């Protein structure tokens, strides 16, 4: 049974249709056929579960017994002596030496009163401790209960000893997804909870058999299999001074010591999986060493992750799938071969919302005040509808953010729409993850030096961000014709509200209605300091003392024929004015001679000015990138796999000139004419 997720950006050849290709789609991790949960609260539980983002209960209340539910404490050592010793050491260090919740943030110190209170609470929790296994505490818990984990590294030996492909579940409890592949059902996970997972939270009872064929309408989990809540409103939290005091660890054979030590092997696919467990809260802990994911939740309404860290999970640090009312804040993710943070197949609460979501439009998922770093991607999300990414630091990755419609198979919600990316610092995403010496094993193929890639995305709003020192581009937007959206076409129903004119009937449903405005491009914030993690993982970057650190090009757009309503306005460049903004230029490197101007739509108000006219050089460039790495280094060959020259250098200027000349020459060739004809045929709905 395969459970390896490869992502929308795997290193594979793209899908070729009549001579037009797009950067590669790939087969996805095999989730079961998945549905968006009912966004209303489940009133069968008291207090109700879901219907909104849950509120965390204080650590103090776990000791005093305030609020509903029972408290279970997990600790290490005889009568908690090992955990208590670690707690004393960490609290003392947090008082005298301080700690960083995220590498980009200043040091924090506990006050004397805070240190005394936390020490008192841990001593009380030690006396309450009755478990040395997180999984056992979870299994014994019910609705409204909470689990407090005292400091220590929890490897869960009993969970590790459970077999993969357990004969209790394989093959009887596999079900078929829409493409016909066998996938683990919900009953599979409930029956064999530690087959794939180090710690598994089963939120609802197993009820009936899943539908023989997945329902096209993915709004609401089918009633026949939606059991009652058994572990809703569950809270799991660490009691240490900082998240890495509690490590839930699926890794083995670590090279070095400390929280960021790299595992040489993995015991389980997932560190902590939360399944249909509405109202879940996770706080103050590190999830490390999964062969796929650190944290994974599916079909869950209401999740809050606060002060959580995701280190060295080989695929994603965090994965949420078909989940609603989901917030991740104050987090730190690194060491992922795909993305540190990944919300995929999120609900249609944006421009394609139906009356299933009476409060739409709204963000269903919010990622805030996090560091997403030192991974192939800081953030990714196929079919990541209506996600808000705000007030984060995204740095030291190969590309900072990627969201797409490319891996539609298995991902309901086509086409992706309505993200908001605002007030972030997106910088120095120049990590050569493809180098033989890279500590991260890449599972994706994305360009070195990119801030944001939107591959076939609609109605995004990218505003009020700082983009600097990304050596290839700040943002990249290109179309993905429907025929190229992965294997088998869209998963589930395509709901009304697709913003591209004539879609989906004309087969061109993506890359329309995107606004990029009021961003500071190539400017360095006053007082900014580069996080030490950039140097530790060998990521090239500029000097923090510089007042400006340009991007290779600020905005790249493929200008695909017929794409409409994409607008760039109010942005300022390295000198603080709009005149120094670069983009999009011949084939998207530095501006050509002359540059192709980005439509500003008169401040976003005039859609008639933002129709793509087609740029065959850019499409040829994308086609070459779809074929993956090769040895070709011509001006129009894909250069994603090598570190770009530093912006402003003589090498960068020379490369830009070569690309400009080659682009103009290519536009006059028979190959370019055939490619333009193919693009125009697609735009006319002639396939």
Instruction: Round the mean pLDDT to the nearest integer and report it.
Output: 90
- Shape summary: globular
State the helical fraction.
Answer: 10-25%
Unreliable stretches covering 5 or more consecutive residues:
1-28, 586-595
Radius of gyration: 25 Å
Instruction: Find the structural class using helix and strand composition.
Output: alpha/beta
Beta-strand content: 15-25%
How widely separated are the two ends?
36 Å
Main sheet: strands, sense, barrel:
20 strands, parallel
Q: Helix tally?
A: 11
Question: Tally of extended strands?
Answer: 36
Give me a quick take on this structure:
With 687 residues, the protein is an alpha/beta fold.
Question: Your description of this structure?
Answer:
- With 687 residues, the protein is α/β, with parallel strands linked by helices.
- The chain has a domain at 402-683.
- The protein is 15% helix and 22% strand.
- The protein has eleven helices and 36 strands.
- The strands form five sheets. It has a 20-stranded parallel beta sheet that branches. A ten-stranded parallel beta sheet has the order 8-13-15-17-20-23-26-29-32-35.
- Helix 2 (81-96) packs antiparallel against helix 3 (112-128) and helix 9 crosses helix 11.
- It is globular.
- The chain starts with 15 loop residues before the first strand and ends with a helix.
- Mean pLDDT is 90; it is low at 1-28 and 586-595.
